[in-house]
Design a protein that fits this description.
437 residues, alpha/beta, six-stranded parallel sheet, 14 helices, binds iron/sulfur cluster
Length: 437
């Protein structure tokens, strides 16, 4: 792990703040840097969980235990309430547990509303006709848009974390859901300029738009962007009207076809075969490689890692980090695909359920499985997932592209000592460790 530099802490949440600007070394209230950072961490983990909770509630699903935890967690970040680093660390682990509940709730909501995902090939490139491009994570918004555009001749495209929508029976049944454009969230400015379509941003990871497309962009749900029209509720007639006013796209198939939609049931239907292939030595190891992508200089690591993995390994992936390598043709091992896309970041719950089922099949713990987890993180949902993994006691994970800046050395060392967490370094060096375990 790397040493953390910069301010020891930064807190300006009360009127006692040093020099009226911010406590940066130790709080006027007595708060020490590790406590300040654990409070920030707790706030971030709770925020991440709330994003999943928001989407579950959007579909009519709720969990009072999670609601209660969020209230307790936020109150613990209040001034002069909690100065106990051990308790704040344990509350972060509890946040991880609550986030597992929340991800499971959202998965239940998605499956009960749209069916369990099925492996689905998704075209890239464009189909002749007018289009609307949907970015973000909200399947509910996409469903409403699909209903409102059925029979209009407008084609719907997904961007970034909306890709897994193509695997859900209740969404893929719409024939005008024609494909996926672009890669992870941060290509928006270039992508949205390139295609003359209407754009609907449904959740986080929306970028402040360039002038050339902001008049054909719309926000909905929690998103607000300067100069962009916001739509309250789910009436997307303005988006449809805008799409109708724009030129047609040409028939221009993309270079790759992506495959998404591997659900828990689909993977576990292959469990006997997977166990047999592991016992025969045909599958050496599983890797969970995924999480949030970012334009960080270390992010190309994830593609290089997947490219260099031996052919007797299987990669499970999720979230937009998959765009670093989901165009690679990794083939299969006796019919088991070597690249298995489990879905959005909240589908980390599916990866955990599959890992537990495999552990049960082998009669070992998840830590004893031939499984390595290599995470990329960017924002606060990933923080919640990170603590979920720690709350399950998972060890030997690699994390990148950097150590969270809100951890200090004391927090990092505690996690390293308890969970043997490692920061990604060079692919070749990491592979020596990853393939040895
Ligand atoms: S809560 Fe404490 S650390 Fe934060 S601004 Fe107030 S005195 Fe400073
Ligand atoms: S996986 Fe993370 S970085 Fe990627 S779009 Fe979702 S929230 Fe954003």
């Amino acid at each position: 792990m790397v040493e953390q530099n910069g301010l020891e802490m930064f807190c300006y949440q009360c009127s006692q703040t040093a020099r009226g600007t911010g406590c940066t070394v130790r709080g006027v209230c007595g708060k020490v840097p590790t406590v300040a950072r654990l409070i920030d961490n707790l706030f971030f983990a709770a925020k991440g969980m709330c994003a999943y909770l928001y989407h579950a509630r959007e579909l009519g699903y709720n969990d009072e235990e999670v609601n209660d935890y969020v209230r307790r967690a936020l109150y613990a970040t209040f001034t002069n309430v909690n100065f106990d680093p051990d308790d704040l660390f344990n509350m972060a682990l509890e946040a991880g547990k609550m986030n597992i509940k929340t991800m499971a709730l959202l998965k239940k909501a998605h499956i009960e509303k749209y069916g369990e995902p099925q492996p689905t090939k998704v075209k890239t490139g464009t189909v002749k006709g007018r289009g609307i491009l949907v970015t973000g994570h909200s399947l509910k918004c996409l469903e409403e848009l699909l209903k409102q555009t059925e029979g209009t001749g407008i084609n719907i495209y997904t961007h970034s974390e909306m890709l897994p929508a193509h695997g859900y029976p209740g969404l893929k049944k719409y024939r005008h859901l024609v494909g996926n454009l672009g890669k992870a969230w941060f290509d928006q400015k270039q992508l949205f300029s390139k295609y003359p379509v209407a754009i609907l941003a449904t959740t986080n990871c929306a970028l402040i738009p360039k002038d050339d497309y902001k008049d054909r962009m719309f926000t909905t749900g929690p998103v607000r962007l300067p100069g962009v029209q916001h739509i309250e509720g789910y009436d997307y007639s303005l988006v449809v009207k805008k799409a109708k006013s724009l030129p047609e796209l040409p028939d221009a198939p993309g270079d790759v076809t992506l495959t998404t939609g591997f659900s828990r049931s689909v993977v576990l239907s292959l469990a006997d075969k997977i166990v047999e292939l592991v016992r025969k030595g045909k599958i050496r190891r599983f890797f969970v490689v995924g999480g949030c992508d970012s334009p960080h200089k270390n992010a190309p690591y994830y593609r290089e890692l997947v490219e260099k993995l031996p052919k007797d390994t299987v990669v499970l992936t999720l979230a937009c980090g998959k765009y670093r390598f989901n165009d690679l043709g990794l083939g299969d091992i006796d019919g088991i695909p070597r690249l298995i896309d489990l879905g959005q970041c909240n589908d980390a719950i599916v990866a955990l359920e599959i890992a537990q089922a495999l552990a049960d099949a082998f009669g070992v713990s998840v830590n004893e499985l031939p499984l390595s987890i290599v995470l990329s993180w960017m924002e606060q949902k990933a923080v919640a997932i990170f603590w979920s993994l720690l709350s399950l006691g998972l060890k030997n994970m690699f994390i990148g592209p950097i150590v969270p800046a809100f951890f200090n050395n004391e927090i990092t060392n505690r996690i390293v000592e308890s969970y043997n967490l490692r920061l990604i370094s060079s692919v070749d060096e990491d592979l020596k460790i990853l393939l040895k375990w």
